[in-house]
Amino acid sequence: MALSSTTTATTTTSATHRLPSLSPTTTTTVRPSSLSFHHNHHLSSSSLKLSHQVKKKKFNVHVSGGDSSTTKCFASNPDQLKSAKQDIKELLSTTFCHPILVRLGWHDSGTYNKNIEEWPQRGGANGSLRFEVEQKHAANAGLVNALKLLQPIKDKYAAVTYADLFQLASATAVEEAGGPKIPMKYGRVDVSGPEQCPEEGRLPDAGPPSPASHLRDVFYRMGLSDKDIVALSGAHTLGRSRPERSGWGKPETKYTKEGPGAPGGQSWTVKWLRFDNSYFKDIKEKRDEDLLVLPTDAALFEDPSFKVFAEKYAEDEKAFFDDYAEAHAKLSNLGAKFDPPEGFSINDEPAAGAVPEKFVAAKYSSGKD
To answer: With 50 as the cut, is the pLDDT of residue 235 above it?
Structure first.
């Protein structure tokens, strides 16, 4: 499984398979990580100008109930979060950046260490990935492109923390690609400066000597289980890897030669912008040399404990979706400090039965069913 990725998409407004405004191509060396997706994008070569100091703010929210009303202080404004989600959906529909947004959320939260109690030393979903020092970690190569995609939305909705925005974008990307609804909560507090970023080395690799042991070392440190590891690995159903950036995959396959976005790379699945259980089916069948299988992917069907879940997900997409949604939500909360402490939901709308038509990214993927 990888928390790094390489996919390319071209856009005229803001990004590509991971980004906003683009132009010339930038080249980065990506080390695939077990909590990542391999995707690449073409973007402006200019560096992203992100503020290194963000003032700590709390936003008052008026809550009415019965004969009483109270004012609560939240880290992020719920109404702005809802509006930001709509803007993210539009971004996804025009840039096909689903994989890199998933990767961004995973890499911000995937640094969590359950053995460290103090915040933010414990890592996790705290918005630290917006700082250049953490973007330069090998496993995060290319994620500056995801930040370029989201920065205009952050600028528009100043009352939303980076930590919440990254996780909102990740969950929304999964849902908009046809995946399960993630039971998210919000109110994550941002770290204030680059000195609070975690040290390099907390994210997993894609090709370690002992893949199954490595996955457990990394994900057990986060407090996750074998079931979580396998379910989260299934997100490799999205995206593609480029050898010039990650060292993995083919330069081009019959499934990626036409994009969307910049063509090329090797995907794990035929419809690599559709979130389903084909990742598990394809690894199990090993029938197509044009589909990528990393050492950490193969371990899911080689390790006896992992194999129980991998076999189950290959046969039962609903079981995969249920377990993935639970694991993704768990990952998105790791290490976070919430304000209010219990967090809050923005999923009280739309009402059941009034769900708007979803953008189906899968129909833009190359390949035939």
So the answer is: yes
What percent of the chain stands above pLDDT 90?
64
Of the candidates 220, 168, 190, the one whose C-alpha atom is nearest the C-alpha of residue 119 is: 190
Distance CA 266, CA 264 (A): 7
Query: Which one is catalytic: 107, 137, 214, 236?
Result: 107
Give per-residue pLDDT as tens, 288-308.
999 999 999 999 999 999 999
Give 201-212 pLDDT, tens digit per residue. 999 887 888 999
CA 365, CA 369: separation in Å to the nearest integer?
A: 11
Greater pLDDT, 60 or 124: 124
Q: CA-to-CA distance for 236 and 17, rounded, in angstroms?
A: 14
329: exposed, middle or buried (C-beta count within 10 Å: 0-12, 13-18, 19+)? middle
Comparison of pLDDT for 205 and 130, the residue scoring more = 130
Mean pLDDT for all residues in the chain: 81
What residues contact 253, with CB distance under 8 A and at least 6 apart? Answer: 265, 266, 267, 290, 291
Distance CA(322)–CA(98), nearest Å, equals 20
What are the residues whose beta carbons fall under 8 Å from the beta carbon of 358, sequence distance 6 or more?
175, 176, 178
Question: Does the annotation mark 107 as catalytic?
Answer: yes
Predicted pLDDT at 90: 97
Handedness of CA 309, 314, 318, 324 (dihedral sign): positive
Task: Report whether 41 contacts 262 (CB < 8 A).
Answer: yes
**Tokens linked to 349:** 């709308």
Q: Do residues 63 and 74 make contact, with C-beta atoms less than 8 angstroms apart?
A: no
Distances (CA, A) of 239 to 12, 123, 218: 20, 26, 22
Q: Specify which residues 61 forms β-bridges with.
A: 72
Q: Which residues contact 80 (CB under 8 A, 6 or more apart)?
A: 157, 158, 159, 160
Contact call for residues 210 and 237 (beta carbons, < 8 A): no
